[in-house]
Design goal:
The structure holds 2 protein chains of 2 kinds. By secondary structure, chain A is α+β, with helices and mostly antiparallel strands. Helix content of chain A is 38%, strand content 34%. In chain A, strands 4, 9, 10, 11, 17 and 18 form a 6-stranded antiparallel β-sheet that branches. A 5-stranded antiparallel β-sheet of chain A has the order 1-20-19-3-2. Chain B has a domain of 197 residues. Chain B starts with a helix and ends in a 14-residue tail after the last helix. Classes of the chains: A alpha+beta, B mainly alpha.
Chain lengths: 488, 295
């Protein structure tokens, strides 16, 4: 960006004007396209776009957002809206219509980001050839006027031949790590610069954002995510996304600091089985996910579970597994889980205690509510002690013991490599362009026949402390280089 | 170690407060000098003995600088002792982070003061640092073990250490913007010239912006490790993203005619508001970052 301003001091680059003239009268479509291009490459439009995205994002922090998964589920969404209705009153409906509760998936946000991506690509395409030319084909000779009007300029009286002067000047500039180019047309013209590739950081930084966006898109299209993958202790559960892969939870431990009572650790001892064969085992902690193949398993939440056995007098065990009490009932805060009895038309709800004051389910007990899976009719409800067998519907239900379940987040995101690549480029590009401004200096040596001549120098930096200091340091050295031989 | 860090912290507060007093005296002397110049140049004192005040009473400003550097040294000592006591960078709760924020402000401010020799900026930077430290005194400073989400010493230390550099820079940028906005074109009241503060504001963002980018990327890496996704639009994430956008807009605006000057200075103020919002946000908007230690 800074380059455009610097360019203003320089002799105009004529190729652009020429190309514009050649295009001349175009059709209507060309006109529209040209206008769109002009808009997308306009810095003002860019600033307005950035601020608009900032404004819309701000809504996302100020207004409560729908938890993931709720938006897609109509009844859950309605329930959630009712929950927050007291906060926004009559505005709730309108705000929902406007997507304010799901702002980052809203059409507003997405269109702004799409515009931003288009603008980033347009600006980069626009800038790249110019930056390339500036780096590779700089103007070595500039007009005499430039030496009077440049942001930094100075003049030195020199003695000797043009060749000597050029050699001394070149040596000084190279000591300051400048690249030096020269041309001669009677007078000697010199161009020197430093960090000539750094302005490319602009293009890198801008395009890196497009790379990150592409990564996010790849992730949302081809990625997979299950944020509610629950396994009771001792149970084995099929992992979605990979056929034949199962996860078994050996144990789950939650521990707390003795002084403060704050949580200290959540640890799931997890085994992965591919077609029954153990392929990975790790204690999964909050900061230590298990990575297997393209999948990652993250410690996300946990809760109580119950080991339940259901047996038929003739067929033996129909069901013997842990049941995660994954939900919390609204009224008293009892934990609730569910399973279906294989081969029977029965759904069982397992209800845990809400604490010692619970009149219905005491600690150490579980309440079993058995419904017809098809008709939803209650068949029986029974509160059972640990180890107690209950005869219901001709089956024996046993609550064997209390367990815990772990809640994992299972994800495969093929977009992440792109996101990290984009992030890396973003940091590198931003750092490069902001830390190493392209330093450019022009010089002209005009020698009189009597061996006394003038060396004019001009810098095209900004009129700021850094550019001035850099130029001054360079001039001091050049002066010293020209002063030394005459003294000797 | 914990005791030592507490002593250093108290010493830093005292040094900052005294430095601020010196800077205020320095500014007032400058204001008086500026008035006298408009009233007809340096005058002879009442008793005819003193000939003239300098453009500013430089020695008072020098005391401010020395005291401020001392405060910075005390804060670095605080950080070293606290790190030794906890085993990670002292950035895990609101107390530690507030003091670290003040450290970031002082560090960036003194870097800028050395470069540009504009002490008036201290009138904005130091009060913000002081307020943050005083705020920190209201929060329990006991060393507490980390909750599971924060148990990543490497990322905790780098993510937040980088953040305080960015936040410190933006505070200095805010100071520069204020000095720009309160004076009419051409400058007044012995304040640094608008061009100079504009340049300082830009320099602060040139440093702060890459650092903020790094904060966000490190945060995304950590989120990917701990929460299972690199970006979840958590309120604090979003607020830092908004801050990043505002400073991104600033960098573009500063090279756009019509936006330069007044509007860019306003963007620096908005950016600093966004920074504070990001910083204090987890106190009221919950989300995944809510482990401030304040319940």
């Amino acid at each position: 960006m800074t380059n455009e301003v610097q360019r203003a001091h320089l002799p105009a680059n004529t190729s652009e004007a020429r190309s514009r003239a050649v295009r001349g009268a175009g059709s209507r479509i060309d006109d529209v396209l040209e206008r769109a291009w002009h808009l997308l490459t306009s810095m003002r439009f860019g600033i307005v776009l950035i601020l608009a995205i900032a404004g819309v994002s701000l809504i996302g922090t100020l207004v409560v957002q729908v938890p993931p998964g709720v938006e897609a589920n109509a009844s859950a969404k309605a329930e959630w809206l009712n929950e927050i209705r007291p906060r926004f009153g009559g505005w709730t409906g309108l705000m929902d219509q406007l997507g304010m509760f799901n702002i980052f998936q809203s059409v507003w946000f997405r269109s702004l980001v799409a515009f931003l991506a288009a603008s980033l690509i347009a600006c980069s395409t626009n800038r790249l050839p110019k930056l390339w030319r500036t780096a590779t084909h700089p103007h070595v000779s500039v007009s005499p006027r430039f030496f009077e009007h440049a942001p930094q300029h100075d003049q030195i009286v020199v003695r000797g031949t043009k060749e000597q002067a050029l050699a001394a000047l070149t040596a000084s500039m190279r000591r300051h790590h400048y690249r030096v180019l020269s041309a001669e047309d009677g007078d000697v013209h010199v161009y020197a610069d430093r960090y000539r590739w750094a302005p490319m950081g602009t293009v890198v930084a801008h395009l890196s954002i497009v790379v990150v966006l592409a990564g996010a898109m790849v992730g949302s299209v081809w990625g997979f995510r299950d944020g509610n993958f629950m396994i009771p202790e001792g149970s084995t559960v099929a992992v979605p996304a990979i056929a034949g892969l199962e996860a078994r939870l050996v144990s789950f431990e939650d521990s707390y600091y003795s002084e403060t009572g704050a949580p200290a650790d959540y640890a799931s001892d997890l085994v992965l089985l591919q077609d029954g064969r153990e392929v990975a085992r790790q204690v999964v902690r909050v900061n230590e996910p298990l990575r297997y193949s393209e999948l990652s398993f993250y410690q996300s939440f946990y809760g109580p579970a119950a080991a339940i056995r259901v047996s038929d007098p003739l067929q033996g065990d129909l069901f013997a597994d842990g049941v995660a009490l994954a939900w919390t009932a609204e009224d008293l805060g009892r934990r609730v889980g569910t399973f279906t009895v294989p081969g029977r038309d029965l759904t069982v709800w397992v209800v845990g205690t809400s604490g010692s004051s619970d009149p219905l389910v005491k600690p150490g007990q579980m309440r079993l509510e058995i419904y017809g899976a098809q008709d939803g009719q209650v068949r029986a409800t029974r509160t059972v002690d640990q180890g107690e067998a209950a005869e219901i519907e001709g089956l024996t239900f046993t609550f064997e013991r209390e367990l815990q379940f772990t809640g994992l987040s299972v994800a495969r995101d093929p977009g992440t490599p792109l996101v990290w690549l984009g992030s890396l480029l973003l940091i590198a590009g931003t750092f490069l362009v902001l830390t190493y401004p392209h330093r450019r200096v022009w010089a002209r040596i005009v020698m009189r026949p009597d061996g006394i001549g003038q060396l004019s120098l001009a810098g095209a930096g900004k009129r700021d402390l850094d550019s001035n200091t850099e130029f001054t340091n360079l001039i001091v050295d050049i002066r010293a280089a020209f002063a030394a031989p005459t003294r000797a | 170690m914990e005791k030592m860090s507490e002593y250093s912290f108290v010493a830093a507060i005292l040094a900052t407060a005294l430095a601020l007093v010196a800077y205020v005296a320095y500014a007032l002397s400058g204001l008086r000098a500026a008035r006298m110049q408009t009233a007809g140049g340096p005058r002879v004192g009442f008793f005819g003995t003193r000939t003239a005040y300098g453009p500013r009473t430089a020695s008072i400003g020098q005391y401010g600088t020395i005291l401020g550097w001392l405060a910075l040294v005390f804060l670095i000592a605080w950080m070293v002792f606290r790190t030794a006591a906890t085993g990670h960078g002292p950035f895990s709760n609101m107390y530690e982070f507030s003091v670290a924020f003040a450290l970031g402000i002082l560090a960036v401010y003194y870097w800028i003061e050395r470069r540009y020799n504009q002490k008036i900026l201290a009138l904005v930077a130091l009060p913000v640092a002081l307020l943050l430290m005083l705020y920190a005194t209201t929060i329990p400073a006991t060393v507490e073990p980390l909750v599971p989400a924060l148990q990543n010493n490497l990322l905790l230390t780098t993510h937040v250490a980088v953040a305080i550099v960015a936040y410190g820079s933006f505070t200095v940028g805010f100071g520069a913007a204020l000095l720009y906005l309160i004076q009419p074109a051409g400058g007044r009241w012995g304040l640094p010239k608008p061009d100079v503060v504009d340049e300082i504001g830009h320099k602060a963002v040139v440093v702060g912006f890459p650092f903020l980018t790094l904060v966000i990327v490190l945060g995304a890496i950590w989120a990917d490790v701990a929460w299972g996704r690199y970006w979840s639009w958590d309120p604090k994430e979003t607020a830092s993203f908004v801050t990043w956008l505002v400073y991104g807009a600033y960098l573009h605006a500063r090279v756009t005619r019509g936006w330069r000057g007044q509007r860019t200075a306003l963007l620096l103020v908005v950016g600093f508001a966004a920074t504070l919002f990001t910083y204090f946000g987890n106190l009221f908007f919950g989300g995944l970052h809510s482990y401030s230690g304040l319940g």
